[in-house]
Structure formats: structure tokens, C-alpha cells
Amino acid sequence: MREELGGDGDQMDWVILHLSSMARDMCTEVRIEAFNALAKIQRVSEGVLLQSLSKKIIKTNTGSASSIKGKKLPPKLSFRCAAGIFAQGVQDEFNQVRTVACKTLGALAKLSNQYAQKALDLLMDMMNDDTEAVRRQTLQTLFDMSTYGCLSMQEKHMHMVLIINIMYLVSLAY
Question: Boundaries of each Nuclear condensin complex subunit 3 C-terminal domain copy (predicted)?
Fold first, then answer.
């Protein structure tokens, strides 16, 4: 397989694309485990990372969404597999999936500053989640991203962070 994909980095992209397709599985437990596995990834191409945030298919360096560094992917495996998995994950009907998708967003943020900035928009939306566990994980994820040094909060997000923190502190008082 190493010759087919061109090396370890390409193999990791291939693994991520497979995990991304599993993140769309009908079974909740499979989606949870797929996001948990994605959180453990240590390297991946930025193109695959960015594609996981965007539902719109992003053109790669080679001009094809079905290749990695010029090598053809198997027919059922392309960058399209990663398209928008986090947008779907944070909107999943089950709060367990939303929680682990949030955690995974933060874990992958340390791999790319551009990814971290785009992930921040999804995380800000999660601050309004109906479930307290998801909101807590979102705050933990933002804290972890700041610890990694990859959180650059934009002014438009500061208002939301302050409101949520105040609400959280008030809830602790009662």
C-alpha cells in the first residue's frame, strides 16, 4: 500500500478518508468511534483537514478531488469522503456524537492554524447547543486550543464566549 499511496503522509490521508466515511454511518456507535479515532490522528494533509470542515468540494493541488499528491485513490475513496464531516458531526441528532465531534475538532486544530480558524466558527455555533455536556465540551475544546497555541479569537466571537462563561458561572452558583 505504501507504494500505491506514496508514503506515510499519504497513508494517513487515506486512513482519515476512511474514518470520514465511517463518521456518516447509520449506527451512532460507529460515528462516535470514527470521531474518537480521528482525534488520535497526528498528521494529515491540510487539504483533507480543510475539506472535513467544508461541505463544498475543495480543489486539491493536483486539480482532482480523487487523488492525493498525484496518486489515484480507490474509486469509492476521495476527498469527497471528508467533505463536511464536522458540519454533520456537530449537528448530529445525538448529543454523544456532537460532543465527540467537538472534542475531535479541537484535537485536530493543533495540526493546522488555518483549520483551527475555520473550526472556531463551528465551535462558536456549538456554544448554543441544547445539551449542557456539549456546551461544556465546547468550552474545554476552546481551552485546549488555547493551550496548544492555535486559538486566535476574533472579536465577533468574544461576545458569545463571555455570555456563555457568565451563564456557566451562574449555573454553578445554584
Answer: 88-155
Distance CA 21, CA 4 (A): 20
108-152: pLDDT as tens digits? 999 998 999 899 889 988 988 999 999 999 989 988 888 888 776
Q: How many CA atoms lie within 13 A of 18 on its CB side?
A: 10
As a whole number of angstroms, the distance between CA 93 and CA 147 comes to 30
Burial 118-146 (b: 16+ CB within 10 A, else e): bbbebbbebbebeeeebbebbbebbebbe
H or E element at residue 67: strand 67-68
Global pTM reads 0.76
- Rounded Cα distance between 70 and 140, Å, is 38
